[in-house]
Amino acid sequence: MLRKLIMSCPRSLRPRADSVGRLGSQPRRRPGSARENGRTAAQRGLAMILLLGFAAAGWADEPSVPGSTPAEASLPANAARNPNRAAASTAASGPAVTEQQAAQLIGALGAATFAERERAMVEIMRIGGALAPYLRDAIQTEQDPELLLRAQKTLQYLTEDSLEAQIETFLSADPDAVGRGREWFEGWVEVEELLGDSLAVRELFIEVMKSHPHVTTSLAGTTAQRTAAAERAVTLVQTGMMERRQLPTLADAAAMLLPLTDPAVQVGAGYEATLLSVFNRQFATVRRDAQLWPPVSKLLQEWLPRSRIENRADVLWYAMQWDLPASKDLGLQTLQETTDVEMLQTALQAISRFGTAADAPQLVNLLADERPAVVRMPVMVDNQPLKVAVADVALATIATLYQVPLKELQMPAGEIHPKVGIIVEHAGYTAAQAEQRAAAIERARRWCSGQPPQGQPRS
């Protein structure tokens, strides 16, 4: 019966045996995606449980391996229905085993007859994870090729199926799932502390753990380990994009962000450019997910203040596109860190989008900055080009914070964009409006000095 069952399985899942019933070697599996490997592990687990279940039923009347009983050789009733959960119940919380029992069972993997060797595998699979350390020791010390091969295969089944079952439990509605995750998955404690617990956070953590395991394990380590994990993550992502034409995933973006939650981790400008590109590809999908967006946006806003100054204009621009309120604080920070015109005007845009009237006094010094703003194409009003200086962008920002319409300042083309606040190209005056411009700047100075305009300023 067992041989018929084996032959009915897919060829890739059959144990290979020689003429005397000893397991032979199988070709090494080529690595696939985490999801493919998970399915393969589950398929092998199901095949093994079905085989072992029939074996146990067929040999119930034969003498059992020393230290076991016929009843112990049977599998849980729900094993066929849910092989992963059955594996978890044995591998994660199986019965205790003594050193003597372990030695007898593992020794029986090299027994003289095929039936004895198979019974030993049944019993080891039933006991599960408690025997994993003994199997590892046997793999290191045993010389018998048959025993060694069976020990390796049994350990592989136990560990792979156990991981998939642990993941299934972790993502379930089990009230103990979060506590078990703290025991099972290195790095989950740190992620939970940072982002809280929700199904969306757990799923994202598992995806990162599968695709970038070095990142999740580094979270409980040192700054040096997190820095190394970050560099490895960006290398994998860049290689996948450029050499294998793989589209980056949200797990890739999260893997690059998580190490940066350590303020001491320093990365280069190229790293940040890749991060911006990867996340921008994911934004539209993630933003629509009400469960996933809050934790992901929190990760982004944790990183924003530590972004490099040479990338600041791009970081601010993307932060506004991604609706991140922390871009306002980054804008105010940028005003203190640089005099670069393009960075200053982008910072002012972020402040105009997310700031309040309380931020306006920090902009007053820029009302004296007459350097030309960076504009892509001049705007024409009555056949005259608008002249836009840094002072004009600051003026428009202050007016926006106090909720004063730009037309009231005689700014003829002034306009607010829903994503980027002030439109820089429109925030100016023609050469013929010098007096109106000077009067508007003076009004803004008074507002910032404690004489706000009538009406309700933005709060």
Can you put this structure into words, describing what you see?
The chain is mostly helical and 459 residues long. It has three domains: 154 residues, no CATH class; 132 residues, no CATH class; 122 residues, no CATH class. It is 56% helix and 2% strand. It is built from 20 helices and four strands. The strands form two sheets. It has a two-stranded antiparallel sheet. A hairpin with a 3-residue loop joins strand 3 and strand 4. Helix 18 runs parallel beside helix 19. The N terminus is likely disordered.
Q: What's the topology here?
A:
Blueprint (H helix, E strand, L loop, with lengths): L1 H7 L25 H25 L24 H9 L7 H10 L5 H14 L4 H10 L3 H26 L6 H8 L3 H8 L3 H13 L1 H6 L4 H20 L7 H8 L11 H19 L5 H11 L8 H10 L4 H12 L3 H14 L25 E2 L2 E2 L4 H12 L14 E2 L3 E2 L11 H15 L11
Antiparallel strand pairs: 1-2, 3-4
